[in-house]
Amino acid sequence: MAVSKRSKRFEVLEQRPVHKDGFIGEWVDVGLIAMGSPNDPKPSIRIEGSKVVEMDGKRREDFSMIEQFVADYAINVKNAPEAMAKSELEIARMLVDVNVSRGECIRVMTALTPAKIARVMDSLNIVETMMAMQKMRCRQTPGNQCHITNVKDHPVLLAADSAEAALRGFIEIETTVGVARYAPFNALALLVGGQTGRRGTLSQDALEEAFELEIGMRGLTSYAETVSVYGTESVFVDGDDTPWSKSFLASAYASRGLKMRFTSGTGSEVQMGAAEGKSMLYLEVLCIMVTKGAGVQGLQNGSISCIGVPGAVPSGLRAIACENLVTMCLDLEVASGNDQTFSHSDQRRTARTIPQLFPGTDLIFSGYAAEPNYDNMFAGSNWDIDDMDDFLAIQRDFKVDGGLRPASEEDVIAIRNKAGRALQAVFAELGFPPITDEEIEQATYAHGTKEMGDRNIPEDLKATERLMKEGVTGIDVAKALAKRGFRDIAESIILMMRQRVAGDYLQTSAWIDGDGTVYSAVNDPNTYAGPGTGYKMSDARWDEIKAIPWAVRAEDV
Amino acid sequence: MAQVNEQLIADVVRQVLKGVNGGGSSAPAASGSGITSADYPLGIKRNDLLKSPRGIPFGELTLENVESGKVTFEDFRISPEVLKMQGEIATSAGRSQIALNLGRAGELTKVPDARILEIYNSLRPHRSTKDELLSIADELEKKFGASVCAGFVREAADVYQRRKLLKGDLPSAD
Questions:
Q1: What is the 8-class DSSP label of residue B166?
Q2: In chain B, where are the structural domains located?
Q3: CA B16 – CA B14 distance, rounded (Å)
Q4: Residue A12 distance to chain B (closest CA, Å)
Q5: Closest listed residue to residue A160, CA positions, set A170, A148, A146
Q6: Per residue of chain A (557 residues), what is the pLDDT tens digit?
Q7: Preferred mutation among A501, A513, A519 to probe B, highest tally of B CBs within 10 A
Q8: Whether A77 contacts chain B with CB within 8 A
Q9: Under 8 Å between Cβ of A277 and A243
Q10: Is 1.10.1510.20 the CATH classification of the domain at B110-174?
């Protein structure tokens, strides 16, 4: 209905960044609906002996492979009759009620069918969802993860960025590549840079599954995350896997002492054209239950790379918060998304992160871009390094722990330089193409690759091939560092290697502190039970958050 | 294996732990070594129990010993005994599925890297006939003593047959 004379106000509004975002109405038949599709099954369960013979209106003989896996491995059959007899509303109220313990909520939530869980979520508004997250996340202390990438796969810049990110508080760092054959160098740069920035930093190389496993076995990475699961059988098969193959892979990782989590997210099934008319959240609940059934300790979800889909439909960002909450309610670690560009609007970008940032999650971002947006090879994150001071200000404004800390310019410069020099030493010792002092200088002061020169790519790629062929391990890297005088970083790498002997970081939601202590949901369980309980920011941590370097100090006025 | 629930998972875990613990090992009784979440993290509280696969104590896995050649990369691998203990910790923290996964993992410590990747690929959809999957299950059981993994692969073979996910099956239309 075009109007003949335009309103100046509407003309101005149309120029706002939010108008560049995609918005679409609900379209139930193709599954373009965030929550509560009329096609979602009605909750039901029938148990004979100890076997689920009917679930959500479907008989066992008609179960898809996913439904069978979920029914057999992810539902507590003993508690199911009692839990399923409760109304959605009653269970939703338990999640929000500070007088009902987390343990009691877990007991009920792990005995529900997928359709029932989806309906419980639909009974919560966004603030209630956040209240429930505060109680239900499995580890008490929140944390954060970042991406370390650049368009040139420049190893020196990767090492410098890793060190800075670790110094700034990221407990996990994740990379991917522009050129796949650079991947071994990326892993090496993150290992050396991450341990330079903070002893205990966990690092991963997000690549093809067999490669990830191999490089992890070598001790060049310490965990894996990009092991995808899906909510419909056809999409799962298109992804070339089944719940059984993925569970086997999960066991393979654990057998080598490596931490891992699965990945899923609302919208992936619609995007692949096979949502079967079901809501995005219902399908995501199936993914979360596959993860639970596989015995994997955690999940990266929150739409992830498909956020354009839920981001465009009504209640989509609410559904994303709900999928994080379901993960917590099944007692799994959650790396809660916020890792992909979805909006041109700064207001929407910030609002999208609030449901995870304010209540706190195990890893609020499963990829904060610790580099400028143009260098992010995961197609851009919701926040990047240029937003760092905004993030620090928000932590301070609301006295909320987002896992990051202010860092001074001189400390950042020093740690970036040290990481560059350490990688230079490793390259020299292992006979890789030399890293020049000029490259270290560039990386020390760089904003991104625009300040970096070009490497000899064919020579680098020959060296990465050699690295793989010769079977270079974390132990070789530690030896090289020790020999060239970087004994502290060498010790850190040995500490990381020892983790795979002890296996403590295989437990739910584990991270490694600077003294080598592993904290997880086992020894740092969430004890929230209302005001005055649960995670309490220490005075030291609050002083750290308060001390943004650019604030005017009262004594200077 | 199709009707696994919490109780059955617990039984299976006990069974696999027994298997891991058996084979001539002098480790404590099959009912478990009494490790619970109170012993966690093992690396701090119970590192007396931790050893490399060839028996080097945890405390000797140091940079100095790496430099002298006394310990090597192969010493930095998890053992089935430690996976068993971590499984017991997960169970005592109420996470039986993790214990089951770590039980399978304990069995897989004996399977070489390359063979693990091959078996993973064989378990992908439309890759294997039912007989091929069943022979992998037999191999896991007989060659590596991996009875829980074998049961898991047999279960997959049944599901793949029912859902037409074996080699040669046409991808289903639904």
A1: S
A2: 1-109, 110-174
A3: 6
A4: 47
A5: A148
A6: 577 899 999 999 999 999 999 999 999 999 999 999 999 999 999 999 999 999 999 999 999 999 999 999 999 999 999 999 999 999 999 999 999 999 999 999 999 999 999 999 999 999 999 999 999 999 999 999 999 999 999 999 999 999 999 999 999 999 999 999 999 999 999 999 999 999 999 999 999 888 999 999 999 999 999 899 999 999 999 999 999 999 999 999 999 999 999 999 999 999 998 999 999 999 999 999 999 999 999 999 999 999 999 999 999 999 999 999 999 999 999 999 999 999 999 999 999 999 999 999 999 999 999 999 999 999 999 999 999 999 999 999 999 999 999 999 999 999 999 999 999 999 999 999 999 999 999 999 999 999 999 999 999 999 999 999 999 999 999 999 999 999 999 999 999 999 999 999 999 999 999 999 999 999 999 999 999 999 999 999 999 999 999 999 888 88
A7: A501
A8: yes
A9: no
A10: yes
- Nearest residue in chain B measured CA to CA from A259: B102
Enumerate the H helices of chain B as residue ranges.
Answer: 6-21, 42-45, 63-68, 80-92, 96-108, 113-123, 130-144, 147-162
The minimum CA-CA distance between B131 and chain A, rounded to whole Å, is 17
pTM of the entire predicted model: 0.95
User: Are A190 and A183 a contacting pair, CB within 8 Å?
Assistant: no
Let me know: does A506 contact B102? Beta carbons within 8 Å: yes
| Structural domains of chain A, ranges and CATH numbers in brackets | 45-123 (no CATH), 137-545 (3.20.20.350)
C-beta atoms of B109 and A255 within 8 A: yes
Answer whether the bond into residue B53 is a cis peptide, omega within 30°.
no
Q: CB neighbours of A85 closer than 8 A, spacing ≥ 6? A: none
Q: What is the DSSP letter of A315?
A: T
φ/ψ of A433, rounded to 5, equals -50, 130
Exposed / middle / buried, residue A329 (Cβ in 10 Å: 0-12, 13-18, 19+): buried
What is the 3-state composition of chain A as percent helix, strand, coil, each rounded to the nearest 5?
Answer: 50, 10, 40
Cβ <8 Å between B6 and A522 = no
Torsion of CA A467, A468, A469, A473, to 10 degrees: 70
ipTM of the complex as predicted: 0.96
CA proximity to A204, closest of A422, A455, A378: A378
- C-alpha atoms less than 13 angstroms from C-alpha of A187 in its C-beta half-sphere: 30
**Chain A: residue nearest B37 by CA?**
A522
For residues B13 and B9, give the distance between their C-alpha atoms in angstroms, rounded to a whole number.
6
| Interface-testing mutation among B1, B51, B64, B66, with chain A (most A C-beta atoms within 10 A) | B66
Give A333 to chain B, closest Cα distance, Å: 12
Place of tokens 């073979």: B157
Structure tokens at A341: 């560009």
